Structure formats: C-alpha cells, structure tokens
Amino acid sequence: MSRILVINPNSTEAVTRSMDAALDPLRAPGGPEIASVTLAEGPPGIQSQRDVDFVVPHLCRRIGEDNRSDAFVIACFSDPGLHSARETTDRPVLGISEVGMTTALNLGQRIGVIAVLRQSIPRHTRYFRAMGIAERIAGEVAVDLPVVELSDEAKTGARMLAVGRALKDEHGADVLVMGCAGMARYRAPLEQALGVPVIDPTQAAVGMAISLVQLGLRPRA
C-alpha cells in the first residue's frame, strides 16, 4: 500500500491529533495510507522566523531517512524547509501554505487568511509575494492565540468567527484559508456560519498528495 506522511513540525501532540482527525474524509479503502506524526524536536509552535529556521534540518533528516512513504506533507503554514526538503528525496514534498493558497485561487477572487499571531503576518506576506499571489490577498487577520491554545474550542471558535467575518465583510474576501494546521477542527462550522469557502490547508495538501501518488507523478531531476 502506498503511504503519505504528514509531518507536524511542532511538538504539540494536540495539533497532530486535530489535523489527523480532519484527514479522515480523505482516507478511503484502496487509497494511500495517511500517517500523521509529530516532530519531537520542534518547538511547541512555529511562531517566528527563528522557529521556522530551527526545524528545517530536523524535517530534512526525517524525510531523507524515510524509505516507506511515497509523498510527504509539511503541516505548517510557514512551509518550513519546503525547498530544502525537496532536495532530500525524489518523492513529492508538499507545503500546506503553498497548496492551500493555490487551492483558494480556484474557489474565489480575493483570499482572506486567518493567522494565529499578528507576528506571523509579515512572514506570510513575504511568502505570498514570492509565490506571485500578493495581489489576490484581500487581507490577513490574526486570532492572536498561541498554537498551544488553539484546542480551546470556545475561545478559538469565537475568535476565528470574528476574524473570518471581518475578512469577509470588511476586507471583501470571498474565500478563506486557515493559517495553521491546528485550526483544522474549525473549518466546517466556520464555513457554515460565514457562507464562503473555508480551506483547511492540510486537507488541501493531503488531497494533492493523494492525486500525485495515485497518478504516479513525482519530481524529475
């Protein structure tokens, strides 16, 4: 059986459990195994450029030493080490930010991003510019909760709804992307409440990985 490895680069197990549960709709008989793991060496949350830089060698080593998986997903919205990781293997390596944002391009004209912390926004903005999609970003607003607190459903759900409504009503977003793998459980209720597509980027990246694996597509040197 083919296998997709989804790596949470932070060390918070609650994030891994939440994102893994959200991947259940993508698990199907005869389809690839989807395995979610936590990078034990990572910080509790990837919340700064220093955190991003720190996890890169650990991610690359984990991917480079894996001989079982047919594709890899880096489940952090900063896509830490994405291009470095691609140099360690001839199998597909996908970043949830890159796939989540390009998925949003197909569902709306103006993308709103729900960030974890406001400090993350300049880093994301640099990435969106590098991707060439900055002009399609309606806005990015933070819930201002650290990653380890995202499992508080009452607090996080209320803040995500308020931020999502602001992005839709004040910034003109017609599609939303959740800017953290730890937000996965809130996608469906947020979409229902706001009436616009809401993308869980980890689901989007794993869906892409399934397609690549089943079609036998992989990078060519």
Description:
The chain has 221 residues and is an alpha/beta fold. It folds into 2 domains: 3-95 and 202-215, Rossmann fold (3-Layer(aba) Sandwich), CATH 3.40.50.12500; 98-201, 3-Layer(aba) Sandwich (Rossmann fold), CATH 3.40.50. 42% of the residues lie in helices and 16% in strands. Helix 4 (96-105) crosses helix 8 (201-215). The two termini are 25 Å apart.
Topology:
Layout: E1 3-8, H1 13-22, E2 33-38, H2 49-64, E3 71-74, H3 82-86, E4 93-95, H4 96-105, E5 111-115, H5 121-131, E6 137-142, H6 153-169, E7 175-178, H7 187-194, E8 198-199, H8 201-215
Parallel strand pairs: 1-2, 1-3, 3-4, 5-6, 5-7, 7-8
Top keywords for this entry?
221 residues; Rossmann fold; 2 domains; four-stranded parallel β-sheet; 8 helices; 8 strands; 42% helix; globular
The CATH class designation of the largest domain is Alpha Beta
Order of helices and strands: EHEHEHEHEHEHEHEH
Helix content: 40-55%
The total beta strand count reads 8
- Total domain modules: 2
Proportion of residues in extended strands: 15-25%
The biggest beta sheet is recorded as: 4 strands, parallel
Q: What is the C-alpha radius of gyration, as a whole number of Å?
A: 16 Å
Structural class: alpha/beta
Order of adjacent strands in the largest pleated sheet: 2-1-3-4
Span of the ends, CA to CA: 25 Å
Low-confidence stretches: none
Global shape: globular
CATH topology call of the largest domain = Rossmann fold
Average the pLDDT over all residues and give the rounded result.
Answer: 97
